[in-house]
Amino acid sequence: MRPWIRGYGRLSLLPVPGSACGSSWAPEIPISYVEVDGNNLRYITSGTGPANLARPFQETLMQIGANHIHFFISYGVAFLVFGLIGKWYVWPSIKGRTLKVALTPLLLYACLRVNGLMFLMPGIVSPELPSAFAVPTAYGDLTASILALLALANIRVESAFAVPMLWLFNIVGLCDLIYANISTFKDHVDPAQLGASYYLAVLNVPAMVVVHVLIFVYLLNLHSAERSRASELATGQRRDR
Length: 241
Fold this sequence. Notes:
Layout: H1 3-12, E1 21-22, E2 30-36, E3 39-44, E4 52-54, H2 66-94, H3 99-110, H4 131-156, H5 162-186, H6 198-240
Helix pairs in contact: 2-6, 3-4, 4-5, 5-6
């Protein structure tokens, strides 16, 4: 990073001094101040060119407030609870079942992700909710719901495409959830802007992460079991010879 960028960053965090001062990296250049939206922006003038404003870090980095803390607590507790439900009750019930029996309930639940379209509905969410978060998340949920339906249809008819469709749904669906979590920080989403969809974020998202993990574990175990059966079959054929 260039020295003048680091200098601007340091200066943006300093209080306004009582008298004019200079920076440590260029003490001969005086620093002036201008108030913009309640923020004191520091700027320097050099020669006859335009003033260079030192942009405060609060404009580029999300400020963690009480709303975010409450959101993270709710999200973390929900994730823990759904994780324990998955470990203690769901996994023991599905691990020895066939693909059709084991994953049908999980895929039916995944189809409800279509409710993510509420991120696009003014009145349910705040008009200030960043579109960079709302649009990809909403259509990502819709895509995941469609893939879940297709995967469900394939496993119910015991199609050869069942396992590939499950992998496709699981990868796309999990990537959508990862993007939504990253976008919360990158696009400065205030949980209060979620409106009624707040419950979707703090309950359905942790539950869906657990669903994806369960499906991944099931598929990996299924692959391992198929390899073991193939190995045993090959060993038996060699013995018969």
